[in-house]
What does this fold into?
Amino acid sequence: MPFASLAFLAGVLLVQHQAQLPSLWWALAAIPPLVLAWWRPLWLIGTCFVLGVFWASFRAGLILNDALATELEGRDLVVVGHVADIPQATQFGVRFLLDVEQAQLDDAHVRVPARVLLNSAIENFAPRAGERWRLRVRLARPHGFQNPGGFDYEGHLFRNRIRARGYVRADAAPVRLAEGAARYAIDAVRQRLGERIVERVTNHEMAGFVVALANGDGRRIAEPQWDMLRATGTIHLVVISGLHISLIGGIAFFLVRFLWALPGVTVQWCPAPVVGALAALALATAYAALAGFVVPTQRALIMLTVAMSGILLRRRFPPLQLLSVALLLVLLYDPLSVMAAGFWLSFAAVAIIVFIVSDDDRAWWRRLGYLQLAVALGMLPLLLALFGQVSLVSPFANLVAIPVFDTVAVPLTLVGIAALPLSGAVAGVLFNLAATVLAWLWPLLEWLGRLPYAQWVQHTPPAWALAAALVGVTLLLAPRGWPARWVGGVWLLPLFLVRPPAPGVGEVWFTLLDVGQGLASVVRTREHVLVYDTGPRFSDSFDTGEAVVTPYLRAHGIGRVDTLVISHGDNDHRGGAESMLHAFPQARVLSSAPALPFASAPCVRGMRWEWDGVQFEMLHPSTDARERHNNHSCVLRVGSAFGSVLLPGDIEMRAELLLLAQAREQLAADVLVAPHHGSKSSSHEMFVAAVRPKYVLFPVGYRNRYRHPHPAVVERYRDAGAQLHDSPAQGALEFRIGVDGIHVDAYRAAQRRYWFAP
It folds into this structure.
């Protein structure tokens, strides 16, 4: 059974790494080899592999077919639907999911995706979970940033069956309709439950934690608190996770089994373990419902069901077989769950526990401590592969935090929920007690999270180093008496010692990052790194400095940024600077912006320096320049013996003509980032002729409201013989300028997956 489940998983994984979904003819072509192998032991494994490919392709194809027609993008549509989850308050309004029943365009019915993600900035519009609304909206296909080390937002939306996103138009008032649907009753209960807890746990810094433990909604937890949970590796304790589901199921099983057997006569009607198993499943299902049956709770519930089935069937199954059945059922229920990090983390953690507990005769307190260390070591390769970082204090933090959460805070919260219909005052006492207990724990977690080496952060390991590390941890965690267990440490070394490739002396690696309507780029030489602009800040909790620039640098093993150039003060160029400087505080900052919230020096024409055989020269602005805003941008030229890059920021024609008068000879460049995103007010014909670029890059947003780049500008560069690239269609663009010429790598094409936007 384990090999069959793993073969099915391999088939599902193969599909997720394809640029296009495999044709069903592929599965049919695999039938003859399977028939030939009928009498061989590999037949079952091969069959499960083919079934995994077929099942994942079939389910993914259904989601792909639920797409928004291109001609409907940006059009005013009237939709009717139900709010499908608890709406999220944002800095500018509210964000919510809508399950669409019908849609109209100019009084004609049209087909739109079944589930869409909407934002609204309409004042006093506060939709609630389960409500039915008529809204005027504008929709677009899912489109996210595509960068090395970055988050795949398109994949996230696809996995959650969200095939369009947009916003509610303010020129037509939303209309709430009377009818509702019973299928959304749980979400409505969850929202009301969170509100009632907040009403009773007032002015308490841990109130968001209690809400998260009650209904799985962690959006009331402050961002600094999330950061501390990540640093200590305890983030899994805050949401309704598999650990909580298992705990509640276990408590219900042993408690109900004891109470059922207490009278004595009841066991004659039904065995106590069977009643306990049914109670465990019932309570665990109810708790998973409070979390909205999100994917982690679905997996945990399936695993618990498999475990309890042994009791109900009165058979004893080996733990490995139970885990294999659970894996297969989870993949059958949702093959796309392999796209979520939680899938790998949950199954890996359980597999490690099964592996080490099966032959452990230590005292319980030693076994508990060893379990934490073993899970931390076993998860190390996976965490570095998924996130590029791992908490070194996680074993100690979890050793203390797990008992506090699972034996005190969670039970108090659940009893409080049960007490709410009977006495709000009693429930409030229980909720406040849970918050107080967590508040007592919090200083310890903060102390651990702020230790100098609380987290290990490094580059993303290559696949072969990850495979070697898996062998290493298996050896290190092998049972006592296994020969040469210490060799596992040698297998782990490539995970840390193998470094990503870097430019040679005199070479330049330039990357234009995909940050939407904005600019962020990285220039690398052999030993130095320069970041030119950091992209926009979209809200107080999201900016591209933290979401794009820093993950890119971390993924490439860059631990130090030497210089940060902020071309000018517009948000789309400097919005992510503070987040990036928080991660790389040693960077020298140059900027033309007059007032920044961090220390900086002015960029001035004539500044020159050399790194590793590569020359850097600032061409604009002059010390006596009177330009402001866009035309005051820092213009940087990076040149080497093998090629050059020109970064002009947002200058427009006035500054371009000034550059022609002051520095015409220095303008020639092989790679040009189009001034001002290719706007009509930039890229003068004389400027284009002076630069003579071979490659022109347009850093623009998907369907941006400015319609950048302007068609006339595009045609101007095309007439000049340049190759044109843009970030929405190609994602991050990397140019390696070296002895072998200039090589271009478009991330969206190189890493293409079938769910990517066309």
About this structure: The domain at 70-180 is CATH 2.40.50 (OB fold (Dihydrolipoamide Acetyltransferase, E2P)).
